[in-house]
Write a structure and sequence with these properties.
single chain, about 270 residues, alpha/beta, Rossmann fold, eight-stranded mixed β-sheet
Length: about 270
Amino acid sequence: MGKGKVIGIISIKGGVGKTTTVSALAHALANDFNKEVLVIDCNFAAPNLGLHLGYVKPEITIHDVLSDNVKADQAIHTSSHGFHVIAGSLLGEEVDPLKLKNKIKHLKKDYDFILLDSSNNLDDQLLGVMNTADELLCIATPDYPTLSCTMRAIKLSSNHGTPIKGLILNKVRNKNFELGIDEIEDCAGCNIVAMLPDATNVLRALAETTPITAFSKNAEVSQEFKKLAATLVGERHKDTRIKSILKNALRRHPHKIDINRGILREEYR
């Protein structure tokens, strides 16, 4: 297996869906595209990736790794959803996030993708993810407060030298009070590569500690995650749902986000 790619999933605003995105994207990459995937909870102060996946009290965590108690290999758990997990400790001691890169760099040879679930705090936790990741995806929602935070995150990543490959626009309701795609891209200076509808099934999946892409495979939000996963592996996801086929047949021009994904997909081929 070749050298894997480390992708940080970031935002400096809470509640936008970073952890949901990490678990769903990992599931899609592993199950729809047969990739070896590891997810790591890098929200060291308030970890909840493990809770999303059913790990309430994991024996060994990323906190143990950063505290020099164990090697990263010993903290890896095998999820029933087809990928590997390094969870965080809910009551873990304070750690140095800037040690993360050196602690996990040897794992890149074992995985196609390592996804980092970041903190939403503008501190060393976020810098640790930026320092470790090869590239970033930034989560946003279509409102002014989140756009402001998104612009700050993009500026910080630019100053740090870690590229943001695209924005993931989450919790979209398609209402006229929401910010539009063009407005968000113009302000952020970054292309939107996925647009996730606000879906009750996401909350139901969380209650079942299951990635939405496993809980409701044919839901619109799951298909969007699969399209993004396909883009990251340089492929095109085939949505075989009848309504999607008809919708695409009636569309005269490709959607802006499909164009953005096409541009990004070419980078990974």
